[in-house]
């Protein structure tokens, strides 16, 4: 994908979102994006490659990556894997004391890494099995995990430029949230700039500076991401999917899909069908 702001909706009844990574089957690329939530990718089988602000963080089985709120990242998942993703909205930490108004965590390995993996694995299993009083066990594991994040992984010294950067992304995330809600419509740079009171040139510079991509690429990647989800989860024809997600025709959708995922939409769908047979 391009560079987008991702909206996080927690699991019902819990203050977090926990799910199996959508790139579990491989042949998956998620381009640069960010969100206001903290995010942990915990790899239990297989491998993933993470890129945070252009720096690569390869992950193997038993390893995780901890992503900060508003931290620009992308993901490459060429092979099948079993990865559990935990997303924690920042409002969960709203009562944590912070003089600079910003909470950041380190990417460096810690002695507690195996405990973090254990807690995430336990939470996911409990949510799948839903045994007696499982909600209490899940909540208990979650708050222990947050305790470890705050006491063992939190950065205590935050540079002024980091604060400025994250505040700018907060502003841009409002704009990209609007784009994600309206991506099926005509959304020219001029239209979006006018809606938010910016000139087109200023909005273009915002995308390039803080999202490290251009507006058109960002919009196309939002559309192709949603198109991928529709392809994977419905029986709609490829032509229907193209039109449903803002593409002018099937050819345009197929071209962008091949560019991002390395295979044609028809090939991906055949692979899904064969896996089920």
TrEMBL record:
UniProt-listed Gene3D superfamilies: Homeodomain-like (1.10.10.60), Jelly Rolls (2.60.120.10)
Source superkingdom: Bacteria
Record domain HTH araC/xylS-type: where: 173-271
Keywords: DNA-binding, Transcription, Transcription regulation
Keyword DNA-binding attributed: yes
Signal peptide: none
A molecular function GO annotation: sequence-specific DNA binding
Protein name per Swiss-Prot or TrEMBL: AraC family transcriptional regulator
